[in-house]
Protein backbone atom coordinates (compact mmCIF):
# COMPACT_ATOMS: atom_id res chain seq x y z
CA UNK A 1 0.00 0.00 0.00
CA UNK A 2 1.48 3.34 -1.02
CA UNK A 3 2.25 5.49 1.97
CA UNK A 4 0.10 8.53 2.53
CA UNK A 5 3.11 10.62 3.39
CA UNK A 6 4.58 10.55 -0.08
CA UNK A 7 1.84 12.41 -2.00
CA UNK A 8 1.36 14.75 0.94
CA UNK A 9 5.04 15.55 0.91
CA UNK A 10 5.25 16.11 -2.79
CA UNK A 11 2.11 18.23 -2.69
CA UNK A 12 3.62 20.43 -0.02
CA UNK A 13 6.81 20.59 -1.99
CA UNK A 14 4.95 21.51 -5.14
CA UNK A 15 3.05 24.17 -3.25
CA UNK A 16 6.18 25.73 -1.83
CA UNK A 17 7.95 25.56 -5.15
CA UNK A 18 4.90 27.07 -6.81
CA UNK A 19 4.86 29.97 -4.36
CA UNK A 20 8.56 30.57 -4.77
CA UNK A 21 8.25 30.43 -8.52
CA UNK A 22 5.34 32.87 -8.58
CA UNK A 23 7.22 35.24 -6.30
CA UNK A 24 10.26 34.96 -8.48
CA UNK A 25 8.20 35.62 -11.60
CA UNK A 26 6.64 38.70 -10.03
CA UNK A 27 10.02 40.10 -9.08
CA UNK A 28 11.45 39.16 -12.42
CA UNK A 29 8.60 40.85 -14.20
CA UNK A 30 8.95 43.95 -12.07
CA UNK A 31 12.62 44.22 -12.93
CA UNK A 32 12.47 43.25 -16.54
CA UNK A 33 9.19 44.71 -17.71
CA UNK A 34 10.40 48.31 -17.83
CA UNK A 35 13.49 47.30 -19.73
CA UNK A 36 11.92 45.38 -22.55
CA UNK A 37 12.07 46.91 -25.95
CA UNK A 38 8.53 46.84 -27.18
CA UNK A 39 7.67 45.56 -30.61
CA UNK A 40 6.15 47.88 -33.14
CA UNK A 41 2.40 47.45 -33.17
CA UNK A 42 0.18 48.20 -36.12
CA UNK A 43 -2.03 51.21 -35.41
CA UNK A 44 -5.55 50.11 -34.56
CA UNK A 45 -8.86 51.73 -35.44
CA UNK A 46 -9.80 52.14 -31.81
CA UNK A 47 -8.82 55.75 -31.31
CA UNK A 48 -10.59 58.14 -29.05
CA UNK A 49 -13.36 59.82 -31.01
CA UNK A 50 -15.19 62.19 -28.71
CA UNK A 51 -18.60 63.60 -29.57
CA UNK A 52 -18.35 66.91 -31.42
CA UNK A 53 -18.02 69.73 -28.90
CA UNK A 54 -20.76 72.33 -28.72
CA UNK A 55 -20.15 75.27 -31.02
CA UNK A 56 -17.73 77.68 -29.45
CA UNK A 57 -18.57 81.22 -28.60
CA UNK A 58 -18.09 83.65 -31.46
CA UNK A 59 -14.51 84.26 -32.55
CA UNK A 60 -13.02 87.10 -30.59
CA UNK A 61 -15.26 86.28 -27.63
CA UNK A 62 -13.84 84.96 -24.38
CA UNK A 63 -11.98 81.69 -24.84
CA UNK A 64 -12.80 78.51 -22.96
CA UNK A 65 -10.19 76.81 -20.80
CA UNK A 66 -8.66 73.93 -22.67
CA UNK A 67 -8.94 70.64 -20.84
CA UNK A 68 -7.32 68.18 -23.27
CA UNK A 69 -3.59 68.16 -22.79
CA UNK A 70 -0.69 65.87 -23.56
CA UNK A 71 2.39 66.81 -21.59
CA UNK A 72 5.42 64.93 -22.84
CA UNK A 73 7.35 64.86 -19.58
CA UNK A 74 11.07 65.04 -20.30
CA UNK A 75 13.63 64.15 -17.60
CA UNK A 76 15.41 66.74 -15.43
CA UNK A 77 13.65 69.76 -16.88
CA UNK A 78 11.52 71.10 -14.01
CA UNK A 79 8.80 68.83 -15.32
CA UNK A 80 7.74 67.76 -11.81
CA UNK A 81 6.72 71.32 -11.14
CA UNK A 82 4.61 71.36 -14.28
CA UNK A 83 3.13 68.00 -13.35
CA UNK A 84 1.89 69.50 -10.10
CA UNK A 85 0.18 72.26 -12.08
CA UNK A 86 -1.53 69.70 -14.31
CA UNK A 87 -2.60 67.53 -11.37
CA UNK A 88 -4.24 70.52 -9.70
CA UNK A 89 -5.95 71.65 -12.89
CA UNK A 90 -7.20 68.14 -13.58
CA UNK A 91 -8.64 67.80 -10.09
CA UNK A 92 -10.28 71.20 -10.22
CA UNK A 93 -12.09 70.34 -13.46
CA UNK A 94 -12.61 66.65 -12.66
CA UNK A 95 -10.69 65.59 -15.73
CA UNK A 96 -9.80 62.07 -16.73
CA UNK A 97 -6.09 61.28 -16.53
CA UNK A 98 -4.42 58.45 -18.42
CA UNK A 99 -2.29 56.92 -15.70
CA UNK A 100 0.10 54.00 -15.80
CA UNK A 101 -0.41 50.91 -13.71
CA UNK A 102 1.93 49.96 -10.89
CA UNK A 103 4.60 52.47 -11.86
CA UNK A 104 4.69 56.23 -12.12
CA UNK A 105 5.83 55.99 -15.74
CA UNK A 106 4.58 54.24 -18.86
CA UNK A 107 7.11 51.45 -18.92
CA UNK A 108 9.96 53.86 -19.63
CA UNK A 109 12.41 53.46 -21.35
CA UNK A 110 10.28 51.28 -23.62
CA UNK A 111 8.08 53.09 -26.09
CA UNK A 112 4.63 54.20 -25.05
CA UNK A 113 1.71 51.94 -25.90
CA UNK A 114 -1.97 52.61 -25.27
CA UNK A 115 -2.33 49.28 -23.55
CA UNK A 116 -0.08 50.60 -20.76
CA UNK A 117 -2.80 52.99 -19.63
CA UNK A 118 -4.54 51.76 -16.50
CA UNK A 119 -7.92 50.18 -17.34
CA UNK A 120 -7.61 51.07 -20.99
CA UNK A 121 -10.40 49.96 -23.32
CA UNK A 122 -10.23 50.57 -27.08
CA UNK A 123 -12.01 53.81 -27.91
CA UNK A 124 -11.34 55.38 -24.51
CA UNK A 125 -10.68 59.12 -24.41
CA UNK A 126 -8.59 60.89 -21.81
CA UNK A 127 -8.16 64.56 -20.95
CA UNK A 128 -4.63 64.59 -19.60
CA UNK A 129 -1.56 62.43 -20.21
CA UNK A 130 1.48 63.60 -18.29
CA UNK A 131 3.58 60.76 -16.84
CA UNK A 132 7.04 59.90 -18.07
CA UNK A 133 7.11 57.95 -21.28
CA UNK A 134 9.24 57.42 -24.30
CA UNK A 135 7.09 59.28 -26.77
CA UNK A 136 5.34 57.55 -29.62
CA UNK A 137 3.03 59.98 -31.30
CA UNK A 138 0.47 57.69 -33.02
CA UNK A 139 -0.14 55.78 -29.80
CA UNK A 140 -0.64 58.93 -27.73
CA UNK A 141 -2.67 60.68 -30.43
CA UNK A 142 -5.32 57.98 -30.30
CA UNK A 143 -6.06 58.57 -26.62
CA UNK A 144 -7.04 62.24 -26.76
CA UNK A 145 -9.45 64.53 -28.59
CA UNK A 146 -8.26 65.75 -31.99
CA UNK A 147 -7.78 69.29 -30.72
CA UNK A 148 -5.76 68.33 -27.62
CA UNK A 149 -2.77 70.55 -26.86
CA UNK A 150 0.65 68.88 -27.01
CA UNK A 151 3.31 70.46 -24.83
CA UNK A 152 6.79 69.62 -23.59
CA UNK A 153 9.79 71.22 -21.85
CA UNK A 154 13.42 71.39 -22.98
CA UNK A 155 16.51 72.51 -21.13
CA UNK A 156 20.04 73.56 -22.02
CA UNK A 157 21.53 70.12 -22.78
CA UNK A 158 24.80 70.71 -20.93
CA UNK A 159 22.92 71.51 -17.72
CA UNK A 160 20.47 68.70 -18.32
CA UNK A 161 23.34 66.29 -18.77
CA UNK A 162 24.94 67.44 -15.53
CA UNK A 163 21.67 66.99 -13.68
CA UNK A 164 20.99 63.60 -15.19
CA UNK A 165 24.53 62.46 -14.41
CA UNK A 166 24.02 63.40 -10.79
CA UNK A 167 20.56 61.90 -10.51
CA UNK A 168 20.92 58.72 -12.56
CA UNK A 169 24.67 58.10 -12.57
CA UNK A 170 24.40 55.46 -9.88
CA UNK A 171 21.98 53.38 -11.96
CA UNK A 172 24.19 53.41 -15.06
CA UNK A 173 26.69 50.61 -14.33
CA UNK A 174 29.44 51.79 -16.69
CA UNK A 175 29.89 54.89 -14.51
CA UNK A 176 30.92 52.67 -11.60
CA UNK A 177 34.41 52.57 -13.10
CA UNK A 178 34.71 56.30 -12.48
CA UNK A 179 36.38 57.01 -9.19
CA UNK A 180 37.34 60.09 -7.26
CA UNK A 181 35.44 63.25 -6.47
CA UNK A 182 34.72 64.76 -9.82
CA UNK A 183 33.29 61.88 -11.80
CA UNK A 184 31.51 64.18 -14.21
CA UNK A 185 34.72 66.00 -15.24
CA UNK A 186 36.49 62.69 -15.62
CA UNK A 187 33.71 61.33 -17.80
CA UNK A 188 33.69 64.42 -20.01
CA UNK A 189 37.47 64.34 -20.45
CA UNK A 190 37.08 61.12 -22.38
CA UNK A 191 33.46 59.95 -22.70
CA UNK A 192 34.32 57.29 -25.26
CA UNK A 193 36.37 55.49 -22.68
CA UNK A 194 33.42 54.96 -20.34
CA UNK A 195 30.29 55.27 -22.41
CA UNK A 196 28.75 52.15 -23.82
CA UNK A 197 25.64 52.89 -25.91
CA UNK A 198 24.30 49.40 -25.19
CA UNK A 199 24.99 49.63 -21.48
CA UNK A 200 22.13 49.34 -19.02
CA UNK A 201 20.40 52.74 -18.65
CA UNK A 202 22.91 54.33 -21.06
CA UNK A 203 20.19 56.58 -22.51
CA UNK A 204 20.32 58.77 -19.40
CA UNK A 205 23.82 59.95 -20.26
CA UNK A 206 23.58 61.13 -23.86
CA UNK A 207 20.95 63.13 -25.76
CA UNK A 208 18.25 62.29 -23.26
CA UNK A 209 15.80 64.78 -24.76
CA UNK A 210 16.07 63.14 -28.17
CA UNK A 211 15.58 59.77 -26.54
CA UNK A 212 12.53 60.81 -24.51
CA UNK A 213 10.94 62.34 -27.59
CA UNK A 214 11.12 58.92 -29.20
CA UNK A 215 14.12 59.34 -31.49
CA UNK A 216 17.41 57.54 -31.84
CA UNK A 217 19.73 59.30 -29.41
CA UNK A 218 22.76 57.74 -31.10
CA UNK A 219 22.18 59.33 -34.51
CA UNK A 220 25.08 60.93 -36.32
CA UNK A 221 24.55 64.68 -35.78
CA UNK A 222 25.23 65.24 -39.50
CA UNK A 223 22.42 62.91 -40.55
CA UNK A 224 19.57 64.64 -42.40
CA UNK A 225 17.22 62.77 -40.07
CA UNK A 226 18.13 65.13 -37.26
CA UNK A 227 16.54 68.13 -38.95
CA UNK A 228 13.55 65.97 -39.92
CA UNK A 229 12.99 64.93 -36.32
CA UNK A 230 13.25 68.50 -35.12
CA UNK A 231 10.72 69.58 -37.74
CA UNK A 232 8.42 66.79 -36.58
CA UNK A 233 8.58 67.98 -32.97
CA UNK A 234 7.75 71.47 -34.23
CA UNK A 235 4.68 70.14 -36.07
CA UNK A 236 3.41 67.94 -33.27
CA UNK A 237 3.84 70.19 -30.27
CA UNK A 238 1.85 73.37 -29.83
CA UNK A 239 4.21 74.69 -27.19
CA UNK A 240 7.78 73.76 -26.39
CA UNK A 241 8.69 75.36 -23.07
CA UNK A 242 12.18 76.07 -21.78
CA UNK A 243 13.26 75.29 -18.25
CA UNK A 244 15.51 78.37 -18.17
CA UNK A 245 12.53 80.59 -18.89
CA UNK A 246 9.99 78.71 -16.89
CA UNK A 247 7.83 81.70 -15.95
CA UNK A 248 7.71 83.00 -19.51
CA UNK A 249 6.88 79.45 -20.58
CA UNK A 250 3.99 79.28 -18.13
CA UNK A 251 2.62 82.57 -19.38
CA UNK A 252 2.66 81.19 -22.94
CA UNK A 253 1.00 78.03 -21.64
CA UNK A 254 -1.71 80.01 -19.90
CA UNK A 255 -2.33 81.90 -23.15
CA UNK A 256 -2.41 78.72 -25.24
CA UNK A 257 -4.80 76.95 -22.88
CA UNK A 258 -6.89 79.96 -21.93
CA UNK A 259 -6.20 79.41 -18.23
CA UNK A 260 -6.32 81.74 -15.23
CA UNK A 261 -3.30 83.05 -13.36
CA UNK A 262 -4.25 80.91 -10.35
CA UNK A 263 -3.89 77.80 -12.51
CA UNK A 264 -0.18 78.37 -13.06
CA UNK A 265 1.07 79.48 -9.63
CA UNK A 266 3.68 77.07 -8.38
CA UNK A 267 6.48 76.23 -5.97
CA UNK A 268 9.63 74.73 -7.35
CA UNK A 269 9.45 70.99 -6.66
CA UNK A 270 12.20 68.39 -6.69
CA UNK A 271 15.05 70.92 -6.68
CA UNK A 272 18.55 70.07 -5.53
CA UNK A 273 20.21 71.91 -2.68
CA UNK A 274 22.55 74.60 -4.03
CA UNK A 275 25.74 72.94 -2.78
CA UNK A 276 24.81 69.81 -4.73
CA UNK A 277 24.61 71.76 -7.97
CA UNK A 278 28.13 72.20 -9.36
CA UNK A 279 28.67 74.99 -11.86
CA UNK A 280 29.89 73.60 -15.13
CA UNK A 281 33.01 75.56 -16.03
CA UNK A 282 33.38 77.00 -19.53
CA UNK A 283 35.42 74.08 -20.74
CA UNK A 284 33.19 71.41 -19.18
CA UNK A 285 30.11 73.22 -20.43
CA UNK A 286 31.49 73.08 -23.97
CA UNK A 287 32.34 69.42 -23.61
CA UNK A 288 28.91 68.57 -22.22
CA UNK A 289 27.26 70.42 -25.10
CA UNK A 290 29.42 68.65 -27.68
CA UNK A 291 28.72 65.27 -26.06
CA UNK A 292 24.97 65.94 -26.33
CA UNK A 293 25.09 67.36 -29.84
CA UNK A 294 21.64 66.16 -30.94
CA UNK A 295 19.98 67.75 -27.95
CA UNK A 296 22.03 70.89 -28.55
CA UNK A 297 20.63 71.16 -32.08
CA UNK A 298 17.13 70.54 -30.79
CA UNK A 299 17.53 73.12 -28.05
CA UNK A 300 18.99 75.73 -30.38
CA UNK A 301 16.00 75.38 -32.70
CA UNK A 302 13.40 75.72 -29.97
CA UNK A 303 15.24 78.46 -28.12
CA UNK A 304 14.94 80.52 -31.29
CA UNK A 305 11.27 79.69 -31.86
CA UNK A 306 10.50 80.36 -28.19
CA UNK A 307 11.69 83.95 -28.45
CA UNK A 308 9.75 84.45 -31.67
CA UNK A 309 6.66 83.38 -29.72
CA UNK A 310 7.48 85.83 -26.95
CA UNK A 311 7.92 88.55 -29.57
CA UNK A 312 4.51 87.74 -31.04
CA UNK A 313 2.97 87.72 -27.58
CA UNK A 314 4.46 91.16 -26.89
CA UNK A 315 7.59 91.73 -24.85
CA UNK A 316 6.04 94.26 -22.50
CA UNK A 317 2.95 92.22 -22.01
CA UNK A 318 5.17 89.25 -21.21
CA UNK A 319 7.14 91.25 -18.65
CA UNK A 320 3.90 92.36 -16.99
CA UNK A 321 2.48 88.85 -16.86
CA UNK A 322 5.69 87.33 -15.54
CA UNK A 323 5.77 89.98 -12.82
CA UNK A 324 2.25 89.17 -11.72
CA UNK A 325 2.95 85.44 -11.73
CA UNK A 326 5.99 86.02 -9.50
CA UNK A 327 3.98 88.25 -7.19
CA UNK A 328 1.33 85.59 -6.88
CA UNK A 329 3.93 82.86 -6.23
CA UNK A 330 5.41 85.05 -3.50
CA UNK A 331 2.03 85.62 -1.95
CA UNK A 332 1.32 81.89 -1.86
CA UNK A 333 4.78 81.26 -0.43
CA UNK A 334 4.07 83.51 2.52
CA UNK A 335 0.69 81.85 3.01
CA UNK A 336 1.77 78.21 2.72
CA UNK A 337 5.42 77.59 3.48
CA UNK A 338 6.88 77.30 6.93
CA UNK A 339 9.99 79.48 7.06
CA UNK A 340 9.23 80.64 3.52
CA UNK A 341 11.68 78.33 1.78
CA UNK A 342 12.66 74.79 0.83
CA UNK A 343 14.53 72.69 3.40
CA UNK A 344 16.72 69.58 3.44
CA UNK A 345 15.07 66.18 3.70
CA UNK A 346 16.00 65.76 7.38
CA UNK A 347 14.09 68.90 8.25
CA UNK A 348 10.82 67.82 6.62
CA UNK A 349 8.39 66.92 9.36
CA UNK A 350 5.54 65.24 7.51
CA UNK A 351 6.31 61.95 5.76
CA UNK A 352 3.83 62.78 3.02
CA UNK A 353 5.91 65.83 2.11
CA UNK A 354 9.15 63.88 1.54
CA UNK A 355 10.36 64.03 -2.04
CA UNK A 356 11.99 61.09 -3.75
CA UNK A 357 15.78 61.02 -3.39
CA UNK A 358 18.44 59.74 -5.81
CA UNK A 359 19.91 56.46 -4.61
CA UNK A 360 22.13 56.90 -1.58
CA UNK A 361 21.79 60.69 -1.28
CA UNK A 362 19.58 63.28 0.37
CA UNK A 363 20.13 66.18 -1.97
CA UNK A 364 16.57 66.89 -3.04
CA UNK A 365 14.83 69.62 -1.07
CA UNK A 366 11.27 69.67 0.19
CA UNK A 367 8.91 71.83 2.22
CA UNK A 368 7.08 72.09 5.49
CA UNK A 369 3.53 73.36 5.46
CA UNK A 370 2.79 76.23 7.80
CA UNK A 371 1.09 75.12 10.99
CA UNK A 372 -1.67 77.64 10.65
CA UNK A 373 -3.17 78.22 7.25
CA UNK A 374 -6.52 79.83 6.68
CA UNK A 375 -9.28 77.48 5.67
CA UNK A 376 -9.49 79.09 2.25
CA UNK A 377 -5.92 78.19 1.35
CA UNK A 378 -5.42 74.91 3.16
CA UNK A 379 -6.26 72.63 0.26
CA UNK A 380 -4.35 74.63 -2.32
CA UNK A 381 -1.24 74.91 -0.17
CA UNK A 382 -1.14 71.20 0.47
CA UNK A 383 -1.63 70.36 -3.19
CA UNK A 384 1.03 72.82 -4.33
CA UNK A 385 3.56 71.23 -1.99
CA UNK A 386 2.77 67.56 -2.44
CA UNK A 387 5.61 65.69 -4.19
CA UNK A 388 4.84 63.81 -7.37
CA UNK A 389 4.72 60.27 -6.02
CA UNK A 390 2.40 61.15 -3.14
CA UNK A 391 0.18 63.19 -5.44
CA UNK A 392 -0.16 60.26 -7.82
CA UNK A 393 -1.23 58.10 -4.89
CA UNK A 394 -3.73 60.78 -3.85
CA UNK A 395 -5.12 60.72 -7.39
CA UNK A 396 -5.74 57.01 -7.01
CA UNK A 397 -2.77 55.58 -8.91
CA UNK A 398 -1.65 52.23 -7.60
CA UNK A 399 2.14 52.37 -7.38
CA UNK A 400 2.75 48.95 -5.89
CA UNK A 401 5.86 48.22 -7.94
CA UNK A 402 7.43 51.57 -7.13
CA UNK A 403 6.68 51.10 -3.45
CA UNK A 404 7.87 47.53 -3.41
CA UNK A 405 11.19 48.13 -5.10
CA UNK A 406 11.73 51.81 -4.38
CA UNK A 407 13.21 52.12 -7.85
CA UNK A 408 15.57 55.07 -7.71
CA UNK A 409 15.01 55.98 -11.34
CA UNK A 410 11.25 56.01 -11.06
CA UNK A 411 11.09 59.57 -9.72
CA UNK A 412 11.75 62.27 -12.31
C1 LIG B 1 18.67 81.28 -26.22
O1 LIG B 1 18.34 82.40 -26.96
C2 LIG B 1 18.58 83.63 -26.29
C3 LIG B 1 18.02 84.76 -27.12
O2 LIG B 1 18.40 84.68 -28.46
C4 LIG B 1 20.08 83.74 -26.04
O3 LIG B 1 20.37 84.94 -25.36
C5 LIG B 1 20.55 82.56 -25.22
O4 LIG B 1 21.94 82.59 -25.07
C6 LIG B 1 20.14 81.24 -25.86
N1 LIG B 1 20.44 80.19 -24.93
C7 LIG B 1 21.20 79.14 -25.23
C8 LIG B 1 21.51 78.21 -24.12
O5 LIG B 1 21.60 78.93 -26.34
UniProtKB/TrEMBL annotation:
Protein keywords: Glycoprotein, Golgi apparatus, Membrane, Signal-anchor, Transferase, Transmembrane, Transmembrane helix
Protein name: Galactose-3-O-sulfotransferase 1
SUPFAM superfamilies (alphabetical): P-loop containing nucleoside triphosphate hydrolases
Location(s), subcellular: Golgi apparatus membrane
InterPro entries hit by this protein: Gal-3-0_sulfotransfrase, P-loop_NTPase
A GO term, aspect molecular function: galactosylceramide sulfotransferase activity
Source organism (scientific name): Sarcophilus harrisii
Stated family: Belongs to the galactose-3-O-sulfotransferase family.
Cellular component, GO annotation: Golgi membrane
Domain of life: Eukaryota
Pfam family, one: Gal-3-0_sulfotr
Gene Ontology terms describing biological process: galactosylceramide biosynthetic process; myelination
Location, primary (coarse class): Golgi
Membrane topology note: Single-pass type II membrane protein
